[in-house]
Amino acid sequence: MPTIGILSLQGGFQEHLTALARAAASLSASAASAPAFTPTPVRTPADLARCTALLIPGGESTTIAHLAAESALLDPLRAFVAAGRPVWGTCAGAILLADEAVAASAKKGGQALIGGLAVRVHRNHFGRQIESFVADLELPFLGGDEQQQPARPFSGVFIRAPVVEAVLDPAAVETMARLPGRKTRAGIDRPSESDGDAEAGDIVAVRQGNIFATSFHPELTDDIRVHVWWLGEVAKYLEKETA
Fold first, then answer.
1. Where does L-glutamine bind (predicted)?
2. Prediction pTM value
Protein backbone atom coordinates (compact mmCIF):
# COMPACT_ATOMS: atom_id res chain seq x y z
CA MET A 1 0.00 0.00 0.00
CA PRO A 2 1.88 3.13 -1.20
CA THR A 3 2.37 5.84 1.40
CA ILE A 4 2.02 9.48 0.38
CA GLY A 5 3.84 11.70 2.83
CA ILE A 6 2.86 15.28 3.64
CA LEU A 7 5.60 17.29 5.29
CA SER A 8 3.84 18.34 8.49
CA LEU A 9 6.12 20.78 10.27
CA GLN A 10 4.22 24.02 9.60
CA GLY A 11 1.68 25.39 7.16
CA GLY A 12 -1.30 23.86 5.39
CA PHE A 13 -0.51 20.19 5.80
CA GLN A 14 -3.87 19.24 7.32
CA GLU A 15 -5.76 20.60 4.32
CA HIS A 16 -3.53 18.54 2.02
CA LEU A 17 -4.06 15.42 4.13
CA THR A 18 -7.82 15.86 3.73
CA ALA A 19 -7.61 16.59 0.00
CA LEU A 20 -5.31 13.63 -0.65
CA ALA A 21 -7.61 11.26 1.23
CA ARG A 22 -10.52 12.46 -0.93
CA ALA A 23 -8.41 12.20 -4.08
CA ALA A 24 -7.27 8.66 -3.23
CA ALA A 25 -10.89 7.60 -2.71
CA SER A 26 -11.91 9.24 -6.00
CA LEU A 27 -9.09 7.56 -7.90
CA SER A 28 -9.94 4.14 -6.45
CA ALA A 29 -13.60 4.60 -7.37
CA SER A 30 -12.79 5.51 -10.97
CA ALA A 31 -10.08 2.91 -11.61
CA ALA A 32 -10.16 -0.53 -10.03
CA SER A 33 -6.43 -0.96 -10.68
CA ALA A 34 -5.48 2.25 -8.86
CA PRO A 35 -3.15 1.79 -5.88
CA ALA A 36 -4.65 2.18 -2.41
CA PHE A 37 -2.75 5.30 -1.42
CA THR A 38 -2.35 6.14 2.27
CA PRO A 39 -1.66 9.82 3.10
CA THR A 40 0.42 10.28 6.24
CA PRO A 41 2.18 13.14 8.06
CA VAL A 42 5.98 13.36 7.82
CA ARG A 43 7.84 14.88 10.76
CA THR A 44 10.95 12.70 11.10
CA PRO A 45 13.47 10.97 8.82
CA ALA A 46 11.85 7.65 9.76
CA ASP A 47 8.47 8.95 8.58
CA LEU A 48 10.00 10.03 5.27
CA ALA A 49 11.73 6.68 4.75
CA ARG A 50 8.33 4.97 4.61
CA CYS A 51 7.05 7.20 1.80
CA THR A 52 6.70 6.55 -1.89
CA ALA A 53 5.96 10.20 -2.69
CA LEU A 54 5.96 13.49 -0.81
CA LEU A 55 3.92 16.68 -0.76
CA ILE A 56 5.45 19.85 0.70
CA PRO A 57 2.70 22.30 1.69
CA GLY A 58 2.44 26.05 1.75
CA GLY A 59 3.28 28.04 4.84
CA GLU A 60 6.42 29.99 5.75
CA SER A 61 9.29 28.60 3.69
CA THR A 62 11.96 29.90 6.08
CA THR A 63 10.14 28.40 9.07
CA ILE A 64 9.63 25.05 7.34
CA ALA A 65 13.32 24.96 6.37
CA HIS A 66 14.37 25.83 9.93
CA LEU A 67 12.13 23.16 11.46
CA ALA A 68 13.31 20.61 8.88
CA ALA A 69 16.90 21.35 9.84
CA GLU A 70 16.09 21.01 13.55
CA SER A 71 14.37 17.69 12.82
CA ALA A 72 17.38 16.40 10.86
CA LEU A 73 15.14 16.27 7.78
CA LEU A 74 16.85 18.64 5.34
CA ASP A 75 19.41 16.18 4.01
CA PRO A 76 16.92 13.25 3.85
CA LEU A 77 14.52 15.52 1.95
CA ARG A 78 17.25 16.46 -0.51
CA ALA A 79 18.15 12.80 -0.95
CA PHE A 80 14.47 11.91 -1.48
CA VAL A 81 14.20 14.46 -4.29
CA ALA A 82 17.56 13.49 -5.80
CA ALA A 83 16.46 9.84 -5.88
CA GLY A 84 13.71 10.78 -8.34
CA ARG A 85 10.76 10.10 -6.05
CA PRO A 86 7.55 11.98 -6.88
CA VAL A 87 7.43 15.29 -5.01
CA TRP A 88 4.90 18.14 -5.18
CA GLY A 89 5.44 21.52 -3.57
CA THR A 90 2.72 24.15 -3.18
CA CYS A 91 3.60 27.82 -2.58
CA ALA A 92 6.27 27.61 0.16
CA GLY A 93 6.87 24.03 -0.97
CA ALA A 94 7.60 25.30 -4.48
CA ILE A 95 10.12 27.77 -3.04
CA LEU A 96 11.86 25.01 -1.09
CA LEU A 97 12.11 22.78 -4.17
CA ALA A 98 13.63 25.52 -6.33
CA ASP A 99 17.36 25.63 -6.95
CA GLU A 100 17.29 29.41 -6.44
CA ALA A 101 14.95 31.77 -4.57
CA VAL A 102 14.98 35.55 -4.39
CA ALA A 103 12.82 38.13 -2.62
CA ALA A 104 12.21 41.87 -2.77
CA SER A 105 13.89 42.13 0.64
CA ALA A 106 16.21 39.18 1.21
CA LYS A 107 16.59 38.01 4.79
CA LYS A 108 20.04 37.96 6.32
CA GLY A 109 21.56 34.53 5.92
CA GLY A 110 19.45 33.65 2.89
CA GLN A 111 16.94 30.86 2.46
CA ALA A 112 17.80 27.20 3.02
CA LEU A 113 16.41 25.16 0.14
CA ILE A 114 15.84 21.51 -0.66
CA GLY A 115 16.47 22.13 -4.35
CA GLY A 116 16.24 19.81 -7.31
CA LEU A 117 13.97 21.96 -9.48
CA ALA A 118 15.97 23.99 -12.00
CA VAL A 119 14.14 27.29 -11.61
CA ARG A 120 14.57 30.58 -9.80
CA VAL A 121 11.49 31.65 -7.88
CA HIS A 122 10.55 35.12 -6.69
CA ARG A 123 9.06 34.93 -3.20
CA ASN A 124 5.96 36.98 -2.32
CA HIS A 125 5.77 38.09 -5.94
CA PHE A 126 2.34 39.73 -5.61
CA GLY A 127 2.89 41.42 -2.26
CA ARG A 128 1.64 40.95 1.27
CA GLN A 129 -1.02 38.57 2.58
CA ILE A 130 -3.75 41.23 2.39
CA GLU A 131 -3.12 41.29 -1.36
CA SER A 132 -3.97 37.61 -1.75
CA PHE A 133 -6.40 36.74 -4.52
CA VAL A 134 -8.19 33.98 -6.40
CA ALA A 135 -7.89 33.64 -10.18
CA ASP A 136 -9.18 31.16 -12.74
CA LEU A 137 -6.35 29.14 -14.25
CA GLU A 138 -6.23 27.07 -17.40
CA LEU A 139 -4.65 23.73 -16.47
CA PRO A 140 -4.54 21.64 -19.68
CA PHE A 141 -2.82 18.75 -17.90
CA LEU A 142 -6.07 18.02 -16.05
CA GLY A 143 -7.61 16.91 -19.35
CA GLY A 144 -11.13 17.47 -20.61
CA ASP A 145 -14.34 15.51 -20.81
CA GLU A 146 -15.48 12.70 -23.08
CA GLN A 147 -16.64 15.24 -25.68
CA GLN A 148 -13.05 16.51 -25.97
CA GLN A 149 -13.92 19.78 -24.31
CA PRO A 150 -11.04 21.42 -22.43
CA ALA A 151 -10.86 21.12 -18.66
CA ARG A 152 -12.90 23.76 -16.86
CA PRO A 153 -10.83 26.52 -15.23
CA PHE A 154 -9.33 25.84 -11.82
CA SER A 155 -9.71 28.42 -9.05
CA GLY A 156 -6.15 29.20 -8.03
CA VAL A 157 -5.74 30.62 -4.52
CA PHE A 158 -2.65 32.84 -4.31
CA ILE A 159 -1.46 33.79 -0.80
CA ARG A 160 1.89 35.62 -0.67
CA ALA A 161 2.61 33.49 -3.69
CA PRO A 162 5.90 32.98 -5.49
CA VAL A 163 6.24 32.76 -9.25
CA VAL A 164 8.89 31.15 -11.39
CA GLU A 165 11.06 34.11 -12.31
CA ALA A 166 13.42 32.12 -14.52
CA VAL A 167 13.70 28.60 -15.88
CA LEU A 168 17.33 27.62 -15.41
CA ASP A 169 17.17 24.49 -17.59
CA PRO A 170 14.55 24.96 -20.33
CA ALA A 171 15.24 21.50 -21.74
CA ALA A 172 14.30 19.84 -18.45
CA VAL A 173 11.56 22.05 -17.00
CA GLU A 174 8.04 22.02 -18.42
CA THR A 175 5.74 24.99 -17.88
CA MET A 176 2.40 23.60 -16.70
CA ALA A 177 0.42 26.80 -16.03
CA ARG A 178 0.62 30.56 -16.30
CA LEU A 179 -1.23 33.41 -14.64
CA PRO A 180 -1.95 36.04 -17.31
CA GLY A 181 -2.82 39.67 -16.84
CA ARG A 182 -1.25 40.50 -13.47
CA LYS A 183 0.41 43.91 -13.13
CA THR A 184 3.84 44.26 -11.56
CA ARG A 185 4.64 47.03 -9.11
CA ALA A 186 7.97 48.75 -8.65
CA GLY A 187 9.68 47.78 -5.43
CA ILE A 188 7.47 44.77 -4.73
CA ASP A 189 6.89 42.87 -7.94
CA ARG A 190 9.03 42.60 -11.00
CA PRO A 191 8.46 41.12 -14.44
CA SER A 192 9.15 37.44 -14.70
CA GLU A 193 12.01 36.51 -16.99
CA SER A 194 10.41 33.07 -17.18
CA ASP A 195 11.23 31.28 -20.42
CA GLY A 196 11.27 34.22 -22.79
CA ASP A 197 7.48 34.42 -23.01
CA ALA A 198 6.65 36.74 -20.11
CA GLU A 199 3.82 38.40 -22.04
CA ALA A 200 1.89 35.13 -21.75
CA GLY A 201 1.84 35.55 -17.98
CA ASP A 202 3.83 34.55 -14.92
CA ILE A 203 4.66 30.86 -14.58
CA VAL A 204 2.74 29.40 -11.63
CA ALA A 205 3.17 25.65 -12.18
CA VAL A 206 6.14 23.67 -13.46
CA ARG A 207 7.33 20.12 -13.72
CA GLN A 208 10.78 18.58 -13.99
CA GLY A 209 10.71 14.81 -14.12
CA ASN A 210 8.95 13.67 -10.95
CA ILE A 211 9.10 17.13 -9.33
CA PHE A 212 5.90 19.19 -9.57
CA ALA A 213 5.46 22.68 -8.14
CA THR A 214 2.56 25.11 -7.96
CA SER A 215 2.47 28.71 -6.73
CA PHE A 216 -1.19 28.40 -5.77
CA HIS A 217 -3.05 26.38 -3.12
CA PRO A 218 -5.32 23.64 -4.56
CA GLU A 219 -5.95 22.35 -1.04
CA LEU A 220 -7.86 25.53 -0.13
CA THR A 221 -10.67 24.74 -2.57
CA ASP A 222 -13.17 21.90 -2.74
CA ASP A 223 -11.79 20.99 -6.18
CA ILE A 224 -9.52 17.95 -5.84
CA ARG A 225 -8.66 17.59 -9.54
CA VAL A 226 -5.00 18.56 -9.11
CA HIS A 227 -4.60 16.13 -6.21
CA VAL A 228 -6.26 13.36 -8.25
CA TRP A 229 -4.01 14.13 -11.22
CA TRP A 230 -0.88 14.05 -9.06
CA LEU A 231 -1.80 10.72 -7.48
CA GLY A 232 -2.30 9.43 -11.02
CA GLU A 233 1.25 10.51 -11.82
CA VAL A 234 2.50 8.74 -8.70
CA ALA A 235 0.66 5.61 -9.89
CA LYS A 236 2.49 5.85 -13.24
CA TYR A 237 5.78 6.14 -11.38
CA LEU A 238 4.97 2.99 -9.41
CA GLU A 239 4.09 1.11 -12.60
CA LYS A 240 7.49 1.96 -14.07
CA GLU A 241 9.29 1.00 -10.87
CA THR A 242 7.63 -2.42 -10.74
CA ALA A 243 7.77 -3.17 -14.48
1. 59-61, 123, 159-160
2. 0.90
